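Quick illustration, no need to memorize.
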Amino acid sequence: MDCSAPNSSYDRVVWTPLHGLRFVWNLCTWMGNFMQLSRQRRREYLRWKIRTLRKRLGLGISGRSGSLATVEALGASLARHSTDVCSNLCVLCALCG
């Protein structure tokens, strides 16, 4: 598996000016690509994110069983989008958790 150790520093963000600039750049790029999607795709994506958030809140923060469902849902959602939009959605999804 390609994952980090639970006690690694990958889950802690050190906010530097460069990191802040990259975050804002990624957010703006994501929003630009998001707005290029059709109204139906945007609605579909937002509904998917809300469903995922509800599942996570229902399972609690440490619910591992929600991880697999989230990954499967992410794969299904990203399969419907173009490669360019997918890369930017992945960046935001990684930041939002």
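The mean pLDDT is 74.
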